[in-house]
Amino acid sequence: MQMIHYSSCTAAKLYSLYKALAKAFLCQTRCLFERMFSVRTLEGPYFCFVMACLQLLFLLLMYQRSSSSWSGAFMEKLPDKWDYSKLHDVYFNLSFFSPASTEDLHHCPPKSPLLVGPIRVNFHNVPNMKRIIRKNPYVQRGGLYTPRHCVAQYKTAILVPHRNRETHLRHLLYFLHPFLQRQQLHYRIYVINQAGNGTFNRAKLLNIGVREALKDDEWDCLFLHDVDLIPENDYNLYVCDELCPKHVSSAMNKFNYRLPYRTFFGGVTAVTPEQYLRMNGFPNSYWGWGGEDDEIANRVNYAGMNIVRVPLDIGRYKMIKHGPDEGNNANEKRFDMLTKSHKYWKVDGMNSLEYKCISKQLTSLYTNITADIGEAPIEDKNSVPES
Ligand code: UDH
Ligand code: NGS
Asked: Which of 26, 166, 212, 316 is the most exposed place for a label (fewest CB within 10 A)?
């Protein structure tokens, strides 16, 4: 499995390269200093101190330039500042490549040549499904896509929790399909619907999505994606960080393209199946709005991992404006539940997930799963589960 961009998978290789370079650099600098000053004053501790400072400076510069890991610093140089006044149509140049014959198929390059950066996103017209299908002729049944001109290096499943947001779903499909094709990924979009009118449960739907998606393929990465968030820069690659769960929607327009608070983990997140299982997935017990994403952020830490974040100038998302949803009132127990999350994360999650899969249909643009997820407990709504 190979990461496409700013991952930490090449960290070990880069470290040996860095050591070799540092050694050569040290030797050269020493000779240069000695020649410049015609003295041997740089022997011993002083020389080591100067060199250590220079190295520290070098590492700091590299780290600042990297996006989510050290290796990012060594990768392709990204623009210092993205110009969001110059936007590209998300469908621009998508049919640029003619398909290669099966014998000529090579691995897709580490950086897709189709990336353009800032994407024009607006919600003036709601696209109808027929139009989206027409614009995405190579998407296969179930919302599956695989590049035609190279062998994708990465397989990502996109999981969207859903109920009564059909208009948002159409916007998402219109933008996300070409966006992911620009990244030359092998991907599939899953929409997980909650059956009935009971209280909404986003986190449980995502657990179901993961369970169902893993029956279909060995995904490298799972993207947990709100239906109303549209990415605005195609350099925001839909791949995982191998070491840490990744917060992808770090800059949403509704929060002025900043994090609303330091530990925010809502909207769009990316985890490998291993990371997901290590944190026992998401809690099943958060019924109604709020708190489940904070609990997930806690779980990342309980499971001994950290959150990495897409830099704010790339992790930009436009949110489709909407009013409150029926059946998704604020969960009044959420603050109390959060204080107890460290006690329950090991017993409430993938290992306690129960649902009934009502249907799994392969539509032209996505895999549509509908599940009966049960109801919020009546006598003690939103109570934390028994251990
Ligand atoms: N969702 C649905 N249908 C619903 C509710 C939620 O599909 O009825 C899904 C959808 O993918 C949405 C996600 O769950 O993007 C998260 O929903 P949310 O209501 O938590 O978050 P959203 O960003 O709205 O859509 C935030 C404003 C609500 C504030 C209410 C505070 N009391
Ligand atoms: C926090 C919520 C999160 C929510 C975030 C942003 O207060 O679940 O606001 O909400 N946490 C709690 O309530 C404990 S938003 O402005 O998107 O509606 O994601």
From this structure: 166
Residue pLDDT, tens place only, 227-266: 999 999 999 999 999 999 999 999 999 999 999 999 999 9
Q: What is the pLDDT of residue 65?
A: 46
Q: Are residues 44 and 157 in the same domain?
A: no
Q: Ligand 2: which atom is nearest the Cα of residue 267?
A: 19
192 neighbors 209 (Cβ within 8 angstroms): yes
Return phi, psi of residue 213, to 5°. Answer: -65, -35
Nearest ligand atom owner, CA of 341: 2
Please check whether residues 33 and 141 belong to one and the same domain. no
Closest atom of ligand 1 relative to the 327 alpha carbon: 8
In the DSSP assignment, the letter for residue 182 is H
- Residues in contact with 34: Cβ distance below 8 Å, sequence separation at least 6, in sequence order: 40, 42
Residue 266 lies in a domain: yes
Q: Measured in angstroms, how far is the CA atom of residue 304 from the centroid of ligand 1?
A: 29
Tell me the per-residue pLDDT of 301-348, one tens digit each, with 9 for 90 and over: 999 999 999 999 999 999 999 999 999 999 999 999 999 999 999 999
Q: Which atom of ligand 1 is nearest to the CA of 225?
A: 11
Angle between helices 292-302 and 202-216 (to 10 degrees): 60
pLDDT of residue 21: 62
At residue 233, the 3 state secondary structure works out as strand
Domain carrying residue 54: 8-74
Q: Which residue has the tokens 């983990």?
A: 265
- Distance, in Å, from the CA atom of 179 to the CA atom of 33, rounded to the nearest integer, reads 51
pTM of the entire predicted model? 0.82
Q: What is the DSSP string of 140-169?
A: BTTTEE--SSSB-S-EEEEEEEESS-HHHH
